[in-house]
Structures are given as structure tokens and as C-alpha cells.
Amino acid sequence: MKLKSRILGTVGIAAAVATATVALPATANAAVGYDRCPSGHACLFSGANGSGSMAYFRYGSPDLRGQSMDNTAESIWNRAGAGALIYTGYNYSGENDHWGSGARGNLSVNGFANVASSIRVG
Ligand SMILES: [Ca+2]
Ligand 1 mean position to 111 CA, how many Å? Predict the structure, then answer.
């Protein structure tokens, strides 16, 4: 009985080590945070400081429900090479907040966290 539990314990440790070894290369190469935003696009993130899920836009979106980002964006990095406007309403309606080319930060600075429903780029 004692021997059996010791063997099971050893197998458990070996399996954990093998899993960690396999996972390491993928983790090392994966971009995180703001760095996920592809050049030439404006990116919205569901968390502050480029965290959470991300949606990226070349020209924008009249309805962020289509990108699962409606009223959930908390940060932005505008790499589109042109200005970006985010709007509180669909189809570029309501109040808007301008982010110049290259600008990035938290939407909370202008009171726009978790309210954006559309975005226009360029
Ligand atoms: Ca909204």
C-alpha cells in the first residue's frame, strides 16, 4: 500500500514536468499586452494597459458587438497611421474620443472606459 502511493506520486511529478517543458516555447514567443497589436491597425483591449482580449481595426467598426468589444474596451493602441475616434453609440453616434496616430493608453483618462460601441479609423 505504501509502495503503491509512492509510485503514483512519482508519476504525477513526471507528468507535471513534461507539461511544463512542452508549454515553455509557446509562452516565450507569444506577444502579450499592447505588443499583440499588429502594425497598421488600431487595437482595442478589454482590460487596462493592453490586457484582456483584443480587437484590431484597419478602418473601424460601426458596431463593436461584431467584435465582442461593445462597452468593454478599456485601453487602446492606435497603430493605424491615422487618427482614431471611438464613439459611445453605434454607427459613430453619441460622444466621441480622439486618439491620434501612435497614441496608446487607458480609455478611462477621458471617461471612455467600457462605453465604446463603434470606432472609426482614418
Ligand atoms: Ca456604448
Answer: 12
pLDDT score at 3 = 52
Q: 19 and 51 share a domain?
A: no
Calculate how far, in angstroms, residue 83's C-alpha sits from the geometric centre of ligand 1: 20
Provide the residue range defining the domain that includes 25: 1-30
CATH number where 106 lies: 2.60.20.10
CA 80 to centroid of ligand 1, rounded, Å: 22
Q: Work out the percent of the chain whose per-residue pLDDT is above 70.
A: 76
* Cα 73 to ligand 1 centre (Å): 10
Kindly give the parts of the chain with pLDDT less than 70. 1-29
Number of domains forming the structure of the chain = 2
Residue 2, pLDDT score? 53
Please give the radius of gyration of the chain, using alpha carbons only, rounded to the nearest integer.
21
Given a contact cutoff of 8 angstroms between Cβ atoms, the answer to whether 57 and 79 are in contact is no
Quote the ligand 1 centre to 88 CA distance (angstroms): 4
Ligand 1: centre distance to CA 32 (Å): 26
pTM: 0.76
CB 51 within 8 A of CB 72: no
Shared-domain flag, residues 68 and 23? no
